[in-house]
């Protein structure tokens, strides 16, 4: 008998918990997930032809997609991950031109 009443109490507690949590999620819009550094560096890939060091630098000017990705990263506050490119220029497996990386903020 005690086991049955304990089961009923547990079911009531679970029902209250799930109903209150679903009410909260219905009224609040879920926030978009924050980008990881890996995702942000992948978004930065249109910049690689410009910021790569020789012989991999195949562009004399950044692509418009590069400017957009850089601007989005900086304005979203997620631009901290781009600092890894400056601190560890071989992080992608090939060298990057630090002066070109820094010039993106001016372009």
From TrEMBL:
Residues 1-23 form the signal peptide. SUPFAM superfamilies: Bifunctional inhibitor/lipid-transfer protein/seed storage 2S albumin (SSF47699). Gene3D superfamilies: Plant lipid-transfer and hydrophobic proteins. CDD domains: AAI_LTSS (cd00010). It comes from the Eukaryota. Keywords: Signal. Residues 23-105 form the Bifunctional inhibitor/plant lipid transfer protein/seed storage helical domain. Pfam families: LTP_2. Coiled coil: none annotated. This is Bifunctional inhibitor/plant lipid transfer protein/seed storage helical domain-containing protein.
